[in-house]
Protein 1
Amino acid sequence: MEWETVIGLEVHVQLATTSKIFSGASTAFGAEPNTQACAIDLAMPGTLPVPNEQAFRYAVMFGLAIEADIGKRSVFERKNYFYPDLPKGYQTTQLESPIVGPGHVEIQLADGRTKSIRIHHAHLEEDAGKSLHEDFHGMSGIDLNRAGTPLIEIVSEPDMRSAEEAVAFARKLHSIVTSLGICDGEMSQGSMRFDVNISVRPKGAEEFGTRTETKNLNSFKFMEDCIALEVERQIDLIEDGGRVIQETRLYNGDTKVARSMRSKEEANDYRYFPCPDLLPVDIDDDFIEAVRQQLPELPDARQQRFVEKYKLSDYDAGMLAADAATSHFFETTTQTCGDAKLAANWVMGEVSAHLNAEEKRITSSPVNAEMLGGLIARIKDNTISNKIAKQVFEAMWQGEGDADTIIEAKGLKQMSDTGELEKIVDDVIAANQAMLDDWLASEPDKRKKKMGGFMGPIMKATKGQANPGLVNQILAKKLNSKL
C-alpha cells in the first residue's frame, strides 16, 4: 500500500525581550541557575503579574509578517498541570483568544516548487523552567531562570506532507523571527523548539490517521531524522496489524532513538480557566499600525532585492537572504570588495563550510565581513590567485591577521612578472618534449584542453604563485609559435 505522511508543527519561539512576560526579572541566557527567577515567576503569595508590552509588540510583528489576523483582545488562561520545573502548578497562556489568528507562510522546495503553509494561530505564553539531569547522581536539578520567559507558540495546520516540507517551514519561521529581531534563533539555547505532530494515511484518503507528537526538537537535522523514523514506525506498525496510539514521544538526536513519553493529553485534561490575576488586553488599530511601520525587511523581500540589486540567481539570493545576520555579512563584504558574485560565493562556500565544521553562527565568525572583503579585493587585483586565497583565508580563520598582513608575512603575492614567467614556461616546455609532441600532433580543437597539462609543472615551479591568467596567455603564445 502507498502511504501519505501528514505533518503539523507547534513552534515555541522565545521572544527577545530583556525582561519576562509578567515580571521584571532578566531573560539573559547563561546566568547561574535560579538567579533570575523572582517572586512573581514563582507565584509567591501576594504577587501579581504585569504584562510586558514589548512581548505584545513582538507578537503583533510576527502576525503582520505572516499576513495574519491580529487579535485585538487577548485573554490569558491558566493551563493546569504539575511538573517539577513549573513552580506555579499552572502555565499562563492563551486558548480562546490568541493574539495572532490565521495566517500563512510560503516555503520553497528543492525542486523549485512553492507551497503555502497555513498558520492556525500563534499565542503568547510563559515558558517553564528547565530540568537538569547531569551531575546530580541519579537525581534531577531544577533551574527556574527560564520560568516566565515570554514565548509565542506558533501552531500550523497539518499541511505538510514530507520531512522536506516540515524542515523548509521550520527554516522559514526561523528566518522570519530572526529577521524581525523578535528572537535570537539560538536553537541550542532553547530559543526555538519544535513539537512535530505526525500521522500517516493511505494515499488518496481524506481522513487523517492517528497522530503522535514528538516534543522539544531543537535542530532541523533532528527534526528531519525524527520524522523519517516515526513515519517508518507508524507504517510498519499498521502493516503488521497494529494501530497507532495517540501519544507524546521524545527523540534523542544524538543516539537517533525515539521512545514513548506519555499518552497524549486533550485540552480538557488541563482544566483551562481564565487567569483571575490578568485582565484582557485590548490592542487598537493605532498600535497595530505603529508596529506595521516599524517592520524591517523580511526574507522574501530581501531575496528579491538581492536578485535585482546584485544580479544574483534566485537560489543564491534565497540562501543569503534567509538569515538576517548572513545577509548583513554578505552586503558588508560586497561593499568592501565591490563584487557581489564573488562575495556570495565565498560566504556560501568557505565561510559557510568553516562555520558548519565548528558549529558556529556567522556572528561568531573569526573572519569578519570586512576581512573577507579585503581578501576578495586581493583576488580581484591579481595580488593572489583563488588557490592561494584559500590558504590566506585559513590563516585568517586561525587568527593570523588580515589578508594583506598574511600575504606579506608568508610571501604569497602572485607572480605577475612577464619576463620571469616566460623563462619558467620555456623551461617547462623544454623539459616535457613528449607532452609538446603530443600537443603538436593533436587536432586543433583538442589542443586547448591538452595545454592544461603544462600548467601543473608551471604552478609547481612557481609554488602556486603564478598568475594563472597571465601564464595561460604566455603558454598559448609559446606553444603556437612552435606550430
Protein 2
Amino acid sequence: MPIEIKELHIKINVDEKTAASTNATSIDEAKIMRAVSESVEQAVHIDKRKKER
C-alpha cells in the first residue's frame, strides 16, 4: 500500500554567534537555504512523479 505525504514540516534551529563572525554566519545561512530549497525541489519532483502514475 503506497504512503502519501500530505504535509512536510521543516524546522531549523540556528544559533547566532557573536557579531565578529557575521561573514561565517551569512555563508552558513546560504548553505542552509540551498539545502532547504534542494530538499523542497526533490519533494515536489517526487510528488509530480507519483501523480503521473
Protein 3
Amino acid sequence: MLEWQNVSALTTSNDDHNLTYMDSHHAMELAHRPVKIVIIIVLGVMITLGNIAVISVISSSVAGWSRNSRYFLLSLTGADSAFGLIVMPLNLCVSLVKNSSMEPDPFCHIVAFFNSTVYSTCMYTLATISFERYIAVFYPLRYRSLMTRRRALLLIAFAWLFPPVLLLPISLPEGIIEVHFSTASLVCNPSYSSNVAYSFTLTGLIFFPCSIVMTYCNLRLWFAAKRQQKRLRKSYLNGRSRPNVASRVLVPVMAAYYACWTPCMAIMIYNAISGNGVSEWMEFVAVWLPTSNGFLNCIFYFWINQSFRRKFYTIVGRLFWGLCPELCKAMGCIPVTGFHEDHRVWNNNNAFQERSSSVSSTCTLLTLASNTYV
C-alpha cells in the first residue's frame, strides 16, 4: 500500500511539473507574439509592394519578353501576392482570437486549406516557369509549336487548380486531417502526424516533383550557359573574362528556393514521423520562410533583368510627370518619351517575340552577357 502511494505521489508530481512547464512555455510563446506579428506584417508589406510593382510592368509589353513568358510570370506574381493578401491576413486574424488550448474550428480548417493551397501553387508555378525556360532555350525554333498559348494556359491552370483538389481534405472539419492553431508559428497547421500516409502523399506529389523539375531544368540551363560563355570567350572576347551570368541568375534562384522551402518540408516530415514538435522559433522561421520566397522572386526573376528595370522606370517616370508636372519641372526632370513607340514595336512583332523567347525574363542567360559588351 505504501509503495502504491509513493508511485501515485511521484506520478502526480511529474504531471504537475509537466503542466507547469507547458504553462510557462505557452506564456513565453504569448509574450513573443507581438514580435512575430510585426515580422509577419513587415514581410507581408514587402511582398505586396514588390509584386504590385511587378504586375504594373509585366501586365504590358516588355521588350524581349514573349506573351507566354508574361503569362507564366503573371501567374507567379499572383501566387506570390497571395502570400501577402490572403495567407498573412487570415492567419493574423486567427492569431488575435485563438490560442493553442482552444479546440479547432471550421474556420481554422479553411485557413489551413488556403495556406497549403497557396504554398503548393507557388511551387507548381516555379516548376512551370523552369520548364518553359527549358523549352525556350533548348528548342527555340520549335518553341511556338511546343509551347502554344493553349498549352501555356493549361500549365498555368494545372498549377492553380490541382492543389485545391489535392488539399481538399484539409478543409473538412471532420476529415482525415486534424488542424490546430500554433501559438509558436501563428498559423493554423494541419496535424500531419494524424495521417502519416497523407503527409507523405503531399510531399511526394508537390515538393519533390517540383524540386526535381526545377533542379533538372535549371542545371541544364546553367551548363548550357557555361558552354556558351566559353565559346563566346574564345570567338569574340579573345579570352577575356566575362560576367558569370548563369551564376548570377540561376544559382540565386535555386538557392533561394531550397533555402526557403526545404526547412518547412523537413519539419513537416519530422513531425509526421516522430509526432513531436520543434522549438518555438524554429517552427516560426520554418513555417514563414517560404513566404519570403515571394519577395525574393521579385528580385531574381525581375529586378536583375535590364528590360524590366527600364520599363519600370519608364512607367514610374510617366506617372510622376503626369501627377506632379510642376514639381518635375522644378526638379529639372525630363518627360519620359518613347513609351508608346516601344509598346507599338513589340506588340506588332509577336512572331519574333515567340521565337526569341529564350531571351525573355530570366532566360537571357545566353545573350545577356554579350549585351553587356554592346
Protein 4
Amino acid sequence: MKKRQIKVLVVDDSAFIRVLLTQILENDSEIKVVGTAEDPFDAREKIKKYNPDVLTLDVEMPKMDGITFLKNIMRLRPMPVIMVSTLTHAGAEVTMQALTSGAFDFVAKPSSEVKEKLQELADDLIEKVKAAAHCNAGVLEKSPEKPQTNLEVKQDRHLIDLIAIGASTGGTEAIHSIVTRLPDNLPPIVMAQHIPDVFSTSYAKRLHNESKMVVQEVRSPQKLSYGHAYLAPGHMHMTIKVKGRGNNRTLWADLSDADPVNRHKPSVDVLFDSVAEAVGSRCIATLLTGMGQDGAQGLLNLKQCGATTIAQNEETSVVWGMPGAAVKLGAADKILALGKIGGYLISRL
C-alpha cells in the first residue's frame, strides 16, 4: 500500500521563497505541497480548502504579522507550524515569540548565501516537516500562559554538584517550564539546547528575565556558581571541567569548536559525557523532547556513573525522539511528565 503523503501549505509573501520551498519539499516523495499562500488571509482560505498536515509560515507577513496569524491558527485550527525565520537578532526575538505561541519549530530563511547553503536548508526543512507531521500536536495546543506553582528547597548546600539538561525540538518551552519554576539556591544548572547562535542569545535573556536564578549564555570559560544556570551557545559545544582539588575544587564551563556530534553543535552527548567525567554520581541529568537521539548515550553513561537520570515521557514531549532513545537504552531512572520534572529534581536534592 502506498504511504499517504504529508500535505504542506507554504505561506510566504515572497514568490521566490514560495517556489523554492515548494521545490525543496516536493523533491521528497513523502511530501506533497498542496498549495501556497502570499498572506495570512489567502492562507486562511487555503487551510479550509486543502486541510494541510503542516504549515510553513513566514515570520514577517503583509496584512497580518506571522505571530498574530500563528496565534489565530493555534486557537481556531491547531496544527504543526514551522516558522521560516531570518537569522538576525530581530528575527530571533520574533521566533522565540512564535515558539511560545505554539510553533513546532523553525528553519532559517534563505539569504544571499542560498546557493551555498541550499542543501543544508533542504535537509533541515524536510526533516522538520516529517517530524511535525507525526508530532504530539496536543502538546503544542496547550496555552503557554498556564500558571505553574514555583518550587522551593530549604537547604542551601546539597549532595548534588550539578544539574544537567539537554533538549531539541520543543525544548525551548520545556526548559522554560522547568527553569522558571526553580528557586535560586540550587546547584549550577548546565543546558544544551539545539538552537542557532543568534537565537541562543535571545533565549538565554528570556530565561534570565523570567527566572529567579541568574541565567547566562556561556561565551568564554566560566566558573559555575550556585543559583546560576548556563546555556551552551548555538555554535559551540559546552563541556564541564574540574579545576583545583579539595576545598579549592571548582567546576567550570568551557567551550569547544570541535565537529558536530550527532549532527549537532552544541551536542547534548558532549555535555553529558563531560559532566559524567567531572562529577560522576553527584549529578542529576534530564533529557527532554527532541528529534533524533542526541543525549541518549550520554544519559546512559551518566546512569552508569551513578547519577540520577530522567527522561521526559512521550505524552508531554512534542517529539519523543531523544528521550525515547534514552528509554530504549535503559538510560533513565525515571520517565516523567514535564510538569513533574522540576519537583522530582527538588526531591532528589
